[in-house]
Each structure stands twice: as C-alpha cells, then as structure tokens.
Amino acid sequence: MSSWGSYSFLYGPIVALAGIGVLIVVLRWGWQKNQSLIAKPVKRGAMTDYGMLVSCAKPNTVIEAEMQKQKLLDNGIQATVAITNEGPRVMVWPEDQSRAQNLLS
Fold it and tell me: Using an 8 Å Cβ cutoff, are 90 and 56 in contact?
C-alpha cells in the first residue's frame, strides 16, 4: 500500500470542493440574465422588421405556415416563418417570391 503522506485524508474533500466549485461557475454562467443558452421567446414584429425578406403567404395558423415552409424547402427555396403583428407569415428572399407563391397556390 502506497503512502500519500500525512495529509492524504484531505485529498477527498479537496477534490469534492473543486468539483462543487466547477459546478457553481458553470451554473452561474448558464443562469446569467440576457446570456442564457435557452432561446428567447418569439417576439412579434411588424412586416418591416424582417430586413430583405418578403412575405409570400399569409396562412391562418403557425402549423399551416410550417407546412408551407417545408414545401418550399423541399423545392429548394429558402423560407422561414415569421410571427408578425398581422399573424404568421411565410417569408422568402425577394428573388424567390414569385416562384414560392406559384408553388403554394
């Protein structure tokens, strides 16, 4: 049996305290305000808040918007769903707008 010296009884508690210290640092970082790793809730905006994206469809529900978005993605058109003040909208780049509207009609 090897001997760690006369302070070997301290190694276990020191390792445990170091582990707890690491957990404290990680948890404090994860729970800081305005820097959470969890996505923020969706915020509604005006139609002009989406930069260069334009609306190509005005579905009644978010589920319908997601289905339309998936149809566009399957056909090679980049699309996203935006929750606007006027309801959900399927947004695309301006050069894809007419093609997207033809696919969804």
Answer: yes
Q: Tell me the Ramachandran region of residue 30: left when phi exceeds 0, alpha when psi lies from -120 to 50, beta otherwise.
A: alpha
Q: How many helices (H) and strands (E) does the chain have?
A: 3, 3
Query: For domain 47-104, which CATH number applies: 3.30.70.1530, 3.30.70.1130, 3.40.190.10, 3.30.300.160?
Result: 3.30.70.1530
Q: What is the pLDDT of residues 37-65, one digit of tens each?
A: 666 777 788 877 888 899 999 999 999 99
What pTM does this model have? 0.59
Cα–Cα distance for residue pair 70/84, rounded to 1 Å: 19
Burial pattern 79-97, b for ≥16 Cβ within 10 A else e, equals bebbebeeebbbbbeeebb
Which residues, in sequence order, are CB contacts of 8 under 8 Å at separation 6+? none
Say how far residue 7 (Cα) sits from the centre of its chain. Answer: 49
